[in-house]
Write a structure and sequence with these properties.
Radius of gyration: 25 Å
Shape: elongated
Organism: Lysinibacillus sphaericus CBAM5
Order of helices and strands: HHHHEEHEHHH
InterPro entries: Phage_Mu_Gp48
Largest sheet: 3 strands, mixed
Protein name: Phage portal protein
Distance between the termini: 35 Å
Pfam families: Phage_Mu_Gp48
Number of domains: 3
Length: about 180
């Protein structure tokens, strides 16, 4: 939040009554408030988690990221953060640590087969909006000779067992499978 600027408060109290100085102060206040807003924006745009629209656009341009118009600022920040956290060479513990830092512990299921050369990540429904970003990240981080599978861990039947058929009838099959029910 930008500072509230009052140029008149910097002057001695005896000068507060002069109309010309009051007018000058009222004209200077908005421009100085704008300077503070820009300063704060520059400071915040140094940190990925505090980026505003212009800062996100700048990072995306630097990293060569292509975005959709419909993406939220949070999704754009997540994409930028995931690009900065890419790291080679690939190792399973590093990949697990990377996914923990991006998605959060317990928000995914990571499996691999070194003999069959594949890695599978099943995302929780709560982080499914990051599906494409995780897919691109894994393609960039894992070795080229490994297959990468990114899937969504849908709601299992056991999670729906606590509801009656009458309660579930209000939802479509797609909603029951893909949405987080309360």
């Amino acid at each position: 939040m930008a500072r509230k600027v009052d140029v008149l408060s910097y002057l001695p109290p005896i000068l507060h009554e002069i109309k010309e100085l009051q007018k000058i102060a009222s004209l200077e206040n908005p421009s100085l408030e704008r300077v503070w807003e820009l300063t704060e924006s520059l400071f915040n745009n140094q940190f990925i988690l505090a980026l505003d629209e212009s800062g996100a656009h700048r990072y995306e341009r630097m990293l060569g990221l292509i975005t959709n118009e419909s993406e939220t600022l949070e999704t754009r920040r997540f994409r930028i953060l995931s690009r900065y956290q890419e790291q080679a060479p690939y190792s399973f513990p590093v990949l697990k640590q990377l996914l923990d830092s991006l998605l959060g512990e317990g928000k995914y299921e990571l499996t691999r087969s070194t003999s069959e050369k594949w890695v599978r990540v099943k995302l929780e429904l709560t982080v499914s909006r990051e599906f494409e970003i995780v897919e691109v990240l894994l393609e960039r981080v894992t070795p080229q000779n490994m297959l990468v599978y990114v899937e969504i861990r849908y709601i299992q039947h056991s999670a729906l067992a606590r509801f009656t058929h009458a309660q579930l009838a209000a939802y479509t099959h797609k909603q029951l499978r893909e949405e987080v029910l309360s």
